[in-house]
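Reviewer 2 asked us to include a model.

Predict the structure of this chain.
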Amino acid sequence: MSRIAQRFAELRGLGRAAFIPFITAGDPDAATSAAILAQLPSAGADLIELGVPFSDPMADGPAIQASSVRALDAGMSVSGVFDLVRKFRKADGSTPIVLMGYFNPIHTYGVERFAADAASSGVDGLITVDLPPEEDEVLRSPANARDLDVIRLATPTSDDKRLATILKDARGFLYYVSIAGVTGTKSYAETDVRTAVMRLKQHSRIPCAVGFGIKTP
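Predicted model (structure tokens):
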């Protein structure tokens, strides 16, 4: 059982949802980022989304864009992200880490090499925002061969036909993007998200996590 599957199984046993915080790797610098990452599990993180900094994060609002700029200015790279994960894994072998980012850095790094290095460093899953299901075979095939979950995204505009495409070959968990727009710009109505999640669960047994639009406890 993967770390992601194991963690969600544990949470089901406890009858509670997962808390999955996001930080950008290398923000504001590698040492501080490593220290923050190391403390997240004791602060309540069940899984961790680790952002791979990119110069043009199209789905992210001003706050995450600024964090990517700081990280890149401080010298963070894809290899540096893997180094952070390796350091984290020396002390924590159970908290799942999911890399969240864009396909351009993966393509530049080399897809096969990226999948191999991600798996060997201790990464558990990949969320690649700009790689839709119709195009993700290029990453999904080498990732799945190394037991990395390629996590799909659903949105408020995903109808039943589209949802069937999204759920086919989905692994890890389903990421429900709760708003139409970019991160950090607006929030959502809780009743709308509750209805959406109930609908998603009718279509699949895969765990569902809600992202975007979360501003308060």
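Residues 173 and 207 are 5 Å apart (CA to CA). The mean pLDDT is 92. We have added this to the supplementary material.
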